[in-house]
Amino acid sequence: GAGVSQTPSNKVTEKGKYVELRCDPISGHTALYWYRQSLGQGPEFLIYFQGTGAADDSGLPNDRFFAVRPEGSVSTLKIQRTERGDSAVYLCASSLGPGQPQHFGDGTRLSIL
Amino acid sequence: DAKTTQPNSMESNEEEPVHLPCNHSTISGTDYIHWYRQLPSQGPEYVIHGLTSNVNNRMASLAIAEDRKSSTLILHRATLRDAAVYYCILRDEGQNFVFGPGTRLSVLP
C-alpha cells in the first residue's frame, strides 16, 4: 500500500522567505510526527500530533516553526523568516497510534540560500 | 541528548552475520528498545523492538542483556542491501524518540 508521502522532495529558497512542507500519512494512522535531520546526525524530534491536535510540540526550535493537521490526516510544517541554519532534511512519520512502529517518508530536503 | 551509545561504524562481509551493539545504561524498567535503519536518501525504517525477552522477526533478531543495559541487533546474513545507518533508540520523558548518530554499517561483497 501507499506509504508516507512528503512534498516537495526538494525545496530551495532564499533567507527570509516562508516555506510550507507537506506530509500525507498512511491512511488510518492517527499519530503523525515531524523530525529534522542534519547531515551526519540522527533525526531530531520536532512535533507530534494525535488526531488533529498537537500533543507535543516541545521539539520546535522557536516560534518561526509551526505545524498543523486540521483534518487529522495531512499535515503541513510551516517555517517563517527562514534562516540558513534551517537547512536540513525534514522527515515526517506516521503510526497507528502512540507507541506503535513509525513509518517514515523520504523527507523534504530544504536548502536556504 | 541521546540515551544510547553505539559505535560510529562497522563493516561486515556479505552473507556473514552482523552483531550491532548498543549501550543504554540509564534505561528505565518500562523503556522499550527500538531499532530503525536508514538507507541512503531514504527515511528511517522500522527494524525491531523489544522490552526484556529476545525478539525475532523476518528482518533481524534483538538480543537484550539480562540487566537491560545493553542490546545487540543481529542480522543473520548480511546482504549489500543491508548497508545503512542503524539507530538504537529509547524514548525521552515525553515518550518521543531520541535518535543518536547511529552505526553506519558497510557490507563488503
In brief, what are we looking at here?
By secondary structure, chain A is an all-beta fold.
Protein architecture, described:
- The complex is a heterodimer of chains A (113) and B (109).
- Chain A has 113 residues and is mostly beta strands.
- Helices cover 0% and strands 49% of the residues of chain A.
- Chain A has no helices and 11 strands.
- With 109 residues, chain B is mainly beta.
- Chain B is 0% helix and 47% strand.
- In chain B, the strands form 2 sheets. In chain B, strands 1, 3, 4, 8, 9 and 10 form a 6-stranded mixed sheet that branches.
- The N and C termini of chain B lie far apart (35 Å).
- The mean pLDDT of chain B is 94.
- At the A-B interface, strand 5 and strand 10 of A face strand 4 and strand 9 of B.
Largest sheet geometry of chain B: 6 strands, mixed
SS element count, helices of chain A: 0
Mean pLDDT of chain B: 94
The coarse overall form of chain A would be globular
Distance between the termini of chain B: 35 Å
Strand content of chain B: over 45%
Based on helices, strands and strand pairing, what is the structural class of chain B? mainly beta
Separation, N- and C-terminal Cα atoms of chain A: 37 Å
Alpha plus pi helix count of chain B:
0
